Amino acid sequence: MGGPAAPGAPGRGPFPPSMMHDEPQVARDDVIKGTDDDAIISKLYAAQSAVNLGYLDDPFVKHFVKRPSRRPPLINRGSYLRTRSLDTFTEQFIKSDITQSSTTTATAPASATTLSASTPTSTTTATTTTPAAAAGIKKQIVSLGCGSDTRYFKFKAKGLSAHKYFEIDFPESTAKKAVVIKKNKAFTDIIGDPDLKLGLGGTELYSKDYCLLSGDLRDFTESIVPKLNAQGFDTSLPTLFLSECVLIYIQPGDSDAIVNWVGTNMDASLFVVYEQINPADAFGAMMLRNLRTRQIELPGIHAYPSLKSQEERFTSRGWQAAHAVNMNKLHESLSEQEMKRISSLEIFDEVEEWQLLADHYCVAWAYQAKPRQSELHRAQLIHLLANAVTS
Ligand SMILES: C[S@@+](CC[C@H](N)C(=O)[O-])C[C@H]1O[C@@H](n2cnc3c(N)ncnc32)[C@H](O)[C@@H]1O
Predict the structure, then answer these.
(1) E strands present in the chain
(2) Ligand 1, atom 9: nearest CA belongs to which residue?
(3) Which of 31, 36, 61, 217 best tests ligand 1's pocket when mutated (most atoms within 8 Å of CB)?
(4) CB of 292 within 8 A of CB of 15?
(5) Is the CB of 250 within 6 Å of ligand 1?
(6) Where is the stretch described as Disordered (predicted)?
(7) Ligand 1 centre and the CA of 135: distance in Å?
(8) Would you say the C-alpha torsion 247, 248, 250, 253 has a positive or negative sign?
(9) Is the CB–ligand 1 distance for residue 149 below 6 Å?
(10) Could you tell me whether strands 204-206 and 239-244 are parallel, antiparallel, or unpaired per DSSP bridges?
(11) Which domains, ranges and CATH numbers included, belong to the chain?
């Protein structure tokens, strides 16, 4: 999963006391800001390892990795699955269309979460939804706590892009990312906008379809929303919100405020969360202990510790559909052909350890469309969102 608490690194002896109670907020924030490029816990290093071995195709991630190193098979497989699952949602969202009969309801099949994103070796995409060019409706993507994620670039390079793609992170993170992007033709060519501009002391980037914004997600309504609006964010457009190992680092009151804002203000939105669950069993407790040794806390895990509570995070706030699955389920949903392909990349015999680890990570999705739309339009939007979570 490329995330914290790699198996094989069990808690060793007494761990340092949590920082959460006795250190100033700024010190805690510094630790969280480091989660994107911490070589042990980050997706970045695991993703590079998975790319080098052929699990994933991402020509952009190498520009963010200073010292690439091969990671254990377990981590490579986790990183592959994590990236592939969020890529699947992104791809299906970009391709989904509103064409439908007017009788569509809000019910998406609960078993719909399977992995169908393009494989590294394929030249065409593997999903069955409408091609992007045919999906004429404008859409937006917002990546919360984007870190060094390269999804915008990967997808646009394949001809798949949304009307607008916004990325948000702390200014320290966005400043580093902005430098890499701005100085590198591999990135600027994909953005393809001669008017690409740096802003706010080099912490932000603005272009026609890609904006990197700096700020604190805990001030979502007061500070992030005005920044989004200033860059052409449109609450009437279907919008995918991605939180890949992000909301879990934020106190539940603050992450709930984001979910509430999205649910209240967006006409049609799909929210996808990837994060840890099951903190209370032996493996979960070890996972949290290991993170504490790196002075990292996951305040969100106690508020949303199970698949059910991940779904209720949305359904209790009036979202029409929500579903959460653990990574074992996603692993099982890989096609025979894809399983064969990844199995050929390296020996993978840590099956029991894998199952334990995969039981502690989940993907949750939810969508909602507002009744203030005309009923036909609302049904069309729901069809679009349901398409994005069905393969
Ligand atoms: C574990 S990293 C994940 C990065 C990226 N989503 C990915 O999966 O590659 C968590 C990211 O969330 C960001 N983050 C955490 N809390 C945040 C906050 N309150 N405001 C803005 N960004 C935040 C961190 O700076 C970091 O880049």
Answers:
(1) 140-144, 164-169, 197-199, 204-206, 210-214, 239-244, 268-276, 321-326, 361-369
(2) 149
(3) 36
(4) yes
(5) yes
(6) 1-22, 100-130
(7) 31
(8) positive
(9) yes
(10) unpaired
(11) 25-121+130-388 (3.40.50.150)
Q: pLDDT digit string (tens) for 245-275?
A: 999 999 999 999 999 999 999 999 999 999 9
- Which segment of 65-74, 112-121, 372-381 scores lowest on mean pLDDT? 112-121
The conformation of residue 363, written as its DSSP 8-state character, comes to E
**212 in ligand 1 pocket by Cβ < 6 Å?**
no
* Ligand 1 binding pocket includes 43 (Cβ within 6 Å): yes
Q: How far is the CA of 247 from the centre of ligand 1 (A)?
A: 8
What is the full DSSP assignment across 192-223?
A: --TT-EEETTTTEEE-SSEEEEE--GGGIIII
- Ligand 1: which atom is nearest the Cα of residue 47? 9
More confident residue, 212 or 135: 212
User: Residue 386's pLDDT band (boundaries 50, 70, 90)?
Assistant: confident
Record the pTM: 0.88
* Percentage above 70 pLDDT, the chain: 83
